[in-house]
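Structure in, sequence out. Go:
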């Protein structure tokens, strides 16, 4: 795994430990050498992971003192993002990312188009967190290609909301494990629309991607709800059966 992916992996692992309570707000993280030994990486990778976590507002790196965990209710950039359900978040992404694709279409560079195609290739051959990283890079590349600072900020914030919520992780993992072929085809359609420099087609392709994703999420959440009810009913029957035998 490249250093670029390594530092992201280490950052996710440190964040998971913070969220699990191993590193409490206000506490100092172990030193770079200790973290490097713990995750079996170089100190450079640890340093880059800490920079990423500081950028996201999870820690504060104090020169000559170390890295300290911030209170997650109040990060470096103000209050923590609100709790939003997966469907609501995806609806918001459809709105803003559709417009970012439309704005990007007339001005996107050949270099960015090549990056998008590389991300699709990565999504097709990878699984799990690696595919998720390629998916994120794809969408953020389009956001940045739009040239609209406000839209870029909103889309980056929406991704942050997705990454910070365990509920989102569960739903997206459930959906993405079943629709990898759809995801590749839809992302390819978005790139083709961008190549044509057609804002209307780019917006439509991005919206189509999210419409299908929303449908898949609705099905997945309904199936999970039914399964939860079935588990509850099975547990109730078991308890009733035991109480009947005892009585």
């Amino acid at each position: 795994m490249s250093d670029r992916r390594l530092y992201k992996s280490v950052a996710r692992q440190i964040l998971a430990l913070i969220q699990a309570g191993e590193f409490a707000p206000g506490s100092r993280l172990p030193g770079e050498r200790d973290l490097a030994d713990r995750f079996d990486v170089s100190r450079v990778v640890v340093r880059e992971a800490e920079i990423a976590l500081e950028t996201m507002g999870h820690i504060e790196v104090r020169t000559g003192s170390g890295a300290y965990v911030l209170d997650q209710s109040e990060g470096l950039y103000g209050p923590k993002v609100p709790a939003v359900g997966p469907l609501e978040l995806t609806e918001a992404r459809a709105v803003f990312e559709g417009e970012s694709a439309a704005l990007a279409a007339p001005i996107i560079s050949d270099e960015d188009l090549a990056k998008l195609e590389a991300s699709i290739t990565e999504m097709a051959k990878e699984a799990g967190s690696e595919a998720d990283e390629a998916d994120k890079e794809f969408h953020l590349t389009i956001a940045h290609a739009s040239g609209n600072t406000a839209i870029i900020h909103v889309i980056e914030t929406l991704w942050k909301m997705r990454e910070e919520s365990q509920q989102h992780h569960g739903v997206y993992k459930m959906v993405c494990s079943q629709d990898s072929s759809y995801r590749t085809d839809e992302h390819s359609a978005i790139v083709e629309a961008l190549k044509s420099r057609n804002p209307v087609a780019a917006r439509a392709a991005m919206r189509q991607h999210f419409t299908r994703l929303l449908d898949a999420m609705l099905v997945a959440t309904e199936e999970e709800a039914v399964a939860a009810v079935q588990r509850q009913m099975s547990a109730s029957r078991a308890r009733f059966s035991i109480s009947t035998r005892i009585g």
